[in-house]
Amino acid sequence: MTHAARAAAEPLPSIAEPVVSTVREHTAAPIRPRAEVPWVSLRFIAQLRMTYLLCEGEDGIYLLDQHAAAERVTFTRLLREYEARSVPSQALLFPQVVDVTAAELELVEERQKEIAEVGLDVRARGATSLSIHAVPRLLSRASPERLLRDLLTEVSRSGGRGFSDAVDLALATMACHGSIRAGDGLSANEAKALLVALDDADFAGHCPHGRPVVTFLSYAELERKVGRR
Predict the structure, then answer these.
(1) Which tens digits make up the pLDDT trace of 131-148?
(2) 10 Å Cβ neighbour count for 188?
(3) Backbone angles phi, psi at 129, to 5 degrees
(4) Rounded to whole angstroms, how far apart are CA atoms 72 and 78?
(5) Fold of 24-222
(6) Cα–Cα distance between 145 and 224 in angstroms, integer?
């Protein structure tokens, strides 16, 4: 199944769904045993089950969750762009029409400027629908409707706290849906590019929603496991 087909098949979030864990909760120290080891120094060996990237370092074996790693990279880049108020947009070839509630329509009309700063070009289209004309360029692989609903869900949950309080969570969820997924085949060059990108990310050992990015096995531990020590 293609990425687009999987995205279309996944259920879209509703405002009533439970709140996911907050982005700022997951700030544990990097799982890498030596912080000075750059990701780009690792040698990519293989992709396993179209989900994990097996890499070799001087100190041991690294197994990366490709989606968690890509999500961390995408979130870091998207957050930096948003904080600079310079999120590049990708125009859609054809606007996508989305049915919404009266409350959601009112929210979009009230927050038109703030929504545009996230990289979404959304316009009212009648009394019960919106049209999406552009999405953040970093998230162009994601479903435009899903990105819009990600944003509306978090803004609605924020209640009286305001739009800015919802942005971190909204961007994290949008980054999740706009990143490489489990099941996506990666070439060696794509895997290496992800390692390079991780060196520039605000790496905290987890994706923004808390899943570990990497598991490490030192050569000493490996040798003990196979009886060579």
Answers:
(1) 999 999 999 999 999 999
(2) 11
(3) -150, 160
(4) 10
(5) Ribosomal Protein S8; Chain: A, domain 1 (3.30.1370)
(6) 51
